[in-house]
Design goal:
Layout: H1 2-12, H2 19-32, H3 43-56, E1 72-76, E2 79-82, E3 87-90, H4 93-96, H5 105-115, H6 128-138, E4 147-151, H7 154-169, E5 174-177, H8 186-191, E6 208-211, H9 246-262, E7 271-275, H10 290-300, E8 304-308, E9 333-336, E10 347-351, H11 353-356, H12 372-387, H13 390-406, H14 408-411, E11 416-422, E12 425-433, E13 438-439, H15 442-454, E14 457-458, E15 460-462, E16 468-471, H16 479-499
């Protein structure tokens, strides 16, 4: 039945796929039917009931993707099925969360075995899996990062990191970049600097400063060598040398002004926090050497440096296990979540013994932090990344996909403004004017977004204007998956051009 639907779609819209890509995808659909369990409910009625619940009682403030929101029934590896049995290539991974693939058999087996023995015990009691997992996780870090605190989410991890930094430095201000996202709790949303995540009428807590962010695409300075990516912003000759970047220096001067005009001269900063690549903000990368300059400056001012690796960690950027390693810096605190548990609610804060000791001023306790089931899942994720060489796969497949997507800039210069990223953390910025770089109108972005979904690929949206396609799949995707994703995005852009050709 599934294959027949796709054959009809192919016949009706022959320009939507290159034949080889369609043939491969159709074969995968046929093969997938062996593991697809038919839902034991009446699909359409059940769908309407759930949709009404989401609109009225189940987190009604949540804005679901798509005109007809997806009801996901099952997942395997990099694939998802909806309630009617239609299959999708998941190139968003639950917002960069499914790191090793949906329902990985090793994780399923480990969870089942542990749940049959001990599902939960408070961290005030010892259990071996916490000790084993903590040691395994810390072994992925070098230098002074020797202590781990386990949490339930990235927001909670960042809240704890801010608390540690303030206690340790005895300062209060946390500095973050504009266009960043660090969570949706009271404190982390104050550090977040995207208006769509800020509620009106709420007095924000004091002690947060948003500094200029160095957007090489839309900002004032960029060159042909400034970005740590295979795809650069422009072909303009760059005067940067090894160890130096003109754009980095210019943006750093603006960062320094934030301190000069907005903070006291001394005892002004507790911490600086930054993602290695901005995620929700639209996969924004910084100039080379920029974070190194910031880290040195912040430490001169008495603050500590926090690396938010919630989206960039665990090999996603390909070249390194942690995103901050690409910048040549050593953070004082690292926060982790999302890919750490492959979808299991888990987060962590990694820091030095000295900073960790600051929590001894009072009691600190987390009911679920270090839960036996969470530790087993986290440990298994680390094993799978190593055993299946997923970091290397992220580099190989991601580089292949980024370079293919880069061609869209010349093929669709009036719609595709920028392609950027590293490994399997990729952004495609959609524009309406190549000169002004104005974001593509929301209606047109949604058209492209819907068409990509209809052709069997799921991607995300990001950026202040939600005009950046976010591609952050499970790290197990293949080059064939990348080729199919490219073909679908290209076809969606062609459909967009055809629809708006005369406008």
């Amino acid at each position: 039945m599934l294959i027949n639907k796709w054959v009809k779609a192919k016949a009706a819209c022959s320009n939507l796929w290159h034949y080889t890509n369609f043939k491969r995808f159709a074969t995968q659909i046929k093969n997938s039917e062996d593991i697809l369990e038919t839902p034991n409910y009446e699909p359409d009625k059940f769908y309407e009931d759930i949709k009404k619940a989401y609109e009225c009682t189940v987190t009604p403030s949540l804005k679901l993707f798509y005109n007809e929101p997806l009801l996901i029934h099952k997942g395997r590896g990099q694939w998802l099925w909806d309630h009617r049995g239609k299959r999708y290539l998941d190139m968003f991974a639950g917002v960069a969360t499914v790191s090793v693939g949906h329902c990985h058999p090793k994780i399923v087996a480990a969870m089942s075995e542990q749940a049959s023995k001990l599902n939960h015990v408070s961290s005030i009691y010892m259990h071996p899996h916490l000790y084993e997992y903590a040691n395994k996780l810390i072994s992925k870090f070098q230098g002074k990062l020797k202590v781990v605190y386990l949490t339930n989410s990235g927001s909670e991890a960042n809240e704890l990191a801010f608390l540690m930094a303030r206690l340790y430095t005895r300062n209060h201000t946390v500095v973050s970049f504009k266009n960043c996202y660090h969570g949706a709790t009271y404190g982390t949303v104050a550090s977040t600097a995207i208006s769509t995540w800020r509620y009106p009428f709420i007095v924000q807590p004091p002690g947060y400063l948003h500094a200029v962010y160095p957007d090489l695409y839309k900002g004032s300075w960029s060159g042909s060598k400034c970005r740590d990516s295979d795809v650069q912003v422009s072909e303009n000759k760059c005067n940067c040398r090894n160890g130096e970047c003109i754009a980095s220096e210019k943006y750093f001067q603006q960062f320094e002004e934030s301190f000069q005009f907005s903070l006291p001269r001394t005892h002004s900063i507790a911490a600086f926090v930054a993602e290695s690549i901005q995620g929700v903000g639209g996969t924004v990368q910084y100039p080379k050497y920029y974070l190194k300059k910031i880290y040195d400056y912040v430490r001169e001012k008495g603050g500590v440096c926090i690396a938010d690796e919630v989206q960039t960690g665990f090999g996603r950027t390909g070249e390194h296990y942690w995103g901050f390693e690409s910048h040549g810096v050593e953070p004082d605190i690292v926060t982790l979540a999302k890919g750490i548990g492959n979808g299991f609610p888990l987060g962590a804060v990694i820091t030095s013994p000295d900073i960790a000791a600051s929590l001894n001023y009072a009691l600190h306790f987390n009911t679920f932090g270090g839960n036996p089931l969470a530790c087993v899942v986290g440990s298994t994720v680390l094993d799978i990344i190593e055993e299946e060489a997923l970091q290397q796969n992220a580099y190989t497949v991601g580089t292949h996909l980024i370079n293919k997507l880069a061609n869209l800039r010349s093929e669709f210069p009036n719609v595709v403004g920028d392609v950027r990223g590293k490994g399997l953390m990729i952004g495609v910025e959609l524009i309406s004017n190549p000169e002004t770089k104005q974001p593509l109108e929301a209606e047109r972005v949604l058209d492209i977004f819907e068409n990509i979904k209809d052709m069997g690929v799921l991607v995300g949206k990001g950026g202040l204007h939600a005009n950046v396609l976010r591609i952050k799949p499970p790290l197990c995707v293949t080059k064939e998956d990348a080729d199919f994703t490219f073909t679908v995005i290209k076809n969606a852009l062609e459909m967009h051009e055809e629809k708006y050709r005369n406008n």
